Amino acid sequence: MTFCNKEKQLIDSGTTAVDNSFLLNYMPDAADVRSAVYLLGLALSDSNGTDNSCETIANKLGISCDDVMSAFLYWEELGLVVISNDTPPTVTYLSTRGGMDSLKKIKPSKYAKFSKDIQSVIEGRLITVNEYNEYYNFLESTTFEPSALVAVAKYCVELKGGNIGYQYVLTVARNQLLRGATTIATVTDRLNSQQKYDGDLKLVFKAMGSSRKFEHADREAYEKWTKEFGFTLDTVVAVAKDCKTGGMTRLDSKLTEYYKRGAMSVKEIEAYEQQKTRLYDLARAINKTIGVYYQSLDAIVDEYVTAWLRRGYDDETLLAIAKYCFKSGIRNLNGLASVIDKLYKNGVTSLYTLENYLARLADTDERIQRVLVKCGLDRRTTASDRQLYKTWTESWGMPHDVIEFVAEKAAGTNAPMAYVNRILSDYKQHGVFDLASAQQYKSDSATKASTATTVYIGGKDMKRRDYSDDEINALFTALDEEDD
């Protein structure tokens, strides 16, 4: 059996590879003889001959085999080699190409007392070199006191038993660190104070139907719910009764949700849950109306439905808008939200105002269509037509009968709507704002009054009407111009 060996990554025939991390980070702090033992053993690890032995290293360096093993024990404590329990022992060099750069230089003697104290606490097993290295790195990279880490380990053993793993110990220690507890006094005080929650946790676990033992995470969670969030024990127990499946994870999720929504008492939580049921039912109905499906409704409720209800919309109005959107080809939530935004800007928040608003848009489109017919145009109303009509009526103050009168004169021209726009602009400049004045303006132009009647829809006598898909599409297209 060879004395020195190494991982496969280090085997490189003809040369001895020494990582710069060793030369820069470890060798400067080591005694010359320890560095010599490490380097000579590394070179011999390529050999399977009789020269690969502890005696060879000792003879070449003029030291005893005990000195050689003492040096290798030093490197083992730093995690650079592993010494087997065989007789004779074997030294295996560990690769320095993956993790050495992330390790800190730590002298074994620096934490001698800590190592002894923590091993006396964790009695169920021997602490490995790598585990010690994890503890050392934690202490080196934080302000945590070694004695405080021993106290954490003792606390964890009392919770989980003497075979506790170092990951659990370090997790508890990091939790203390996040809360500013790093000294033996502050850590002990926090850990002892959390144990007072055990009586309350028994009631919580009973409500959930759980019989497992408490863990540190349970105490941390209960402290968060009561100290940070402000829930009472009665409230926590009441919520826990609905968490027989999911346990502490579900309970934490629900209490966090209630905290964010401002539902702090049992009564407020019950009201919130009733409202939440309504919100999810409404979200499901809206999705169905516009033809979409989402397995999870949480984001839809938070991002869309809740915001719409805060604006004053009720379920019936939202479903009516969704229906109109579906008919007009708007079949996604972003499109629906855009329509609702436009309606909201125009003060449309109820079913009555929605129907009134759509009727007004429909009436306007009917008026524009009559103007197009007068102009001799056989086509649908466009966005440009709506913008022109809005300018004539709202900006220039032209009555509809005057517009139709001019439209008749425009029939047969190359660009009838442009002609109407030009004549109406002339009327505005000369103060012509009624049909009689228009008929008398420029007497050499014979005119004929329009006999078309105006249809007004609105007011309390308005009756709800049915719209074709084409009408709905036109009306919702017209929403774009309403924002201008």
Q: Major sheet: size, sense and barrel closure? A: 3 strands, mixed
Show unreliable segments. 7-13, 98-103, 443-462
Helix content range: 55-70%
Instruction: Give me the number of helical elements.
Output: 23
Distance N to C terminus: 89 Å
What is the average per-residue confidence, as pLDDT, rounded to a whole number? 83
Across the major sheet, the strand order is: 1-3-2
Radius of gyration: 42 Å
Shape label: elongated
Q: Output the structural class.
A: mainly alpha
> What is the N-to-C succession of helices and strands?
EHHHHEEHHHHHHHHHHHHHHHHHHH
Strand content: under 5%
| DSSP summary, beta strand count | 3
In short:
The protein is an all-alpha fold and 484 residues long.
Detailed description of the structure:
- α3 packs across α4 (65-77), α7 (146-160) packs across α8 (166-178) and α18 crosses α23 (469-482).
- The protein starts with a strand and ends with a helix.
- The relative contact order is 0.05.
- The protein has a 3-stranded mixed sheet with strand order 1-3-2.
- The protein contains 23 helices and 3 strands.
- The protein has helices at residues 20-26, 32-44, 54-61, 65-77, 112-121, 129-141, 146-160, 166-178, 184-194, 198-208, 216-229, 233-240, 247-261, 266-290, 298-310, 315-327, 333-345, 351-374, 383-395, 400-410, 416-429, 435-440, 469-482; strands spanning 4-6, 81-83, 91-93.
- It is elongated.
- β2 (81-83) and β3 form a beta hairpin.
- It has 484 residues and is mainly α.
